[in-house]
Every structure is written in C-alpha cells, then in structure tokens.
C-alpha cells in the first residue's frame, strides 16, 4: 500500500504558475502509474494528467499546453507544473496511484488551488 501527500497549492493570481508535488511513502512511485485529478466546487472530479511507470504521459484535452506532469523516482515524488493559471483552474487537486489506467487505487487528501482574477 502507498500513502500519498500533496503539497504546493495556495492562493495565486491569474497568470501565475504553480508546481504541485505528490510524495509517496510505503511503496515507491516507480511501481505505479500516477495521476493528478481535480475537483472544482459543484463539479465532478476530473483527470488532469497521468504518467505511466515508463514515463508516458496523458493529459485532459482541454488542458494540454499549460499542465506538465513529471516524476522523480529517486525522490518518490510526482509533480504537476501549472502555468498561466486561470480562475477556472480553482479546485482541489488530488494525486492518485494505481496499477490500472487511469490510476485510482490510492488517493491523497488533496491540495487547494485558488486562482483570483
């Protein structure tokens, strides 16, 4: 089993950038596909980006170009770089891990990102 802890969220202005981190314990991230999801108020949780154990990536079509997922197996951490933030990016961002695709067997508690206009 793996435990996931997200960090890096906060209150930012439109146009700013953030890097979210997801650090795992209990197991190494190299063993799992990893993903970032988000849930805005009143909306369903949606996949933002995911990365395979081999490094292949997949992004929500509407978010391509502003979001970049990466993994550092040595640090047991997965990152989500978000550029040119928009108010509609406001959401709780969750990290997930799993053997399936998209990953979703294990979840972190989330980190809040709030973008002001």
Counting copies of identical and different chains, the oligomeric state is: single chain
If you average the pLDDT, what whole number results?
95
State the secondary-structure class: mainly beta
**Terminal Cα span:** 40 Å
Helix content: under 10%
In one word, what is the shape? globular
Number of helices: 0
The ordered string of helix (H) and strand (E) elements is: EEEEEEEEEEE
Total strand count, please? 11
Q: Could you outline the blueprint of secondary structure elements for this entry?
A:
Layout: E1 3-7, E2 10-13, E3 18-25, E4 33-39, E5 46-51, E6 57-59, E7 67-72, E8 77-82, E9 91-98, E10 106-107, E11 111-116
Parallel strand pairs: 2-11
Antiparallel strand pairs: 1-3, 3-8, 4-5, 4-9, 5-6, 7-8, 9-10, 9-11
């Amino acid at each position: 089993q793996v435990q996931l802890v997200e960090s890096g969220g906060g209150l930012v202005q439109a146009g700013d950038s953030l890097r979210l981190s997801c650090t795992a314990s209990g197991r190494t991230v190299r063993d799992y596909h990893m993903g970032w999801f988000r849930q805005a108020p009143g909306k369903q949780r949606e996949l933002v980006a995911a990365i395979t154990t081999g490094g292949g990536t997949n992004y929500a079509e509407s978010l391509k170009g502003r979001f970049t997922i990466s993994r550092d197996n040595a640090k047991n951490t997965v990152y989500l770089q978000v550029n040119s933030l928009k108010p509609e990016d406001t959401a709780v961002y969750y990290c997930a891990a799993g053997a399936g695709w998209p990953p979703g067997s294990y979840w972190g508690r989330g980190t809040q990102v709030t973008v002001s206009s």
